[in-house]
Amino acid sequence: MLKKQLEESLAHLKSKGFDTPEIGIVLGTGLGRLVDEIKNPIEAHYNHIPFFPLATVEFHTGKLVYGTIEDKKVVVMQGRFHLYEGYDFMDITYPIRVMHMLGISKLFISNAAGAINLDYKKGDMMLIEDHINLQGGSPLAFKNVSAFGQRFVDMSEPYDKEMCKKLMTIAKDHGISLKSGVYASVVGPQLETKAEYRMLKIIGADAVGMSTVPEVIVANHLELPIVAVSVLTDECDPDHLEPVNISEIIAIAEETEPKMVKLFRELIKQL
Q: Which UniProt keywords apply (predicted)?
């Protein structure tokens, strides 16, 4: 069933002109402007792609955009899916499988996250070196998973070392501050309590968010090299915790976005 659905999604996108992209990019909350960098864009709205879920979060645009950046063919997810929207792991990761079938050989992921590491501040960016899955499940836990790749996927290095190293060098060369650390993925949509922030720090998280890990697991299943960056939009200090301000979080993501766009553009150029 999944294979047939993927083939229908693929046929639709190819009919619109989506032709063997090299790089897939997933854009997180407040980080949609990378699509402005795409030359000769072709858009496919999620509600027109067979079997695609629909983005229900008001600040997530729901479309795939195909075109070129730095003379490389890319396909960009402007708007992603989350467990907290009522979707399951298969829905959330369906677009990764579609992009893989289109032909991508690299995957870039961005997200907005809260800083658990108190040395990291609002507006910082963090290269994800590792993650902790606190979402209570796996996108690989289905009966015929072996038809798509190894059931028991190794996750000792889920993020591609070479691309991570390149991105750190690019940041240094362009005077962009890029931290690195461990991303914890929770279900949401509620934000964490003070006690939960303390727990996350104890178990080794530097940042927390509600996405990314399912996509990374499936990308590893498909043997796709991944690089992922969090824009840190709030500081999760349990001893000085202030009520969440979603509009401020979006504003900080948008302010930081040009730096993330610069990093991704330069990395695309070097690949």
A: Glycosyltransferase, Transferase
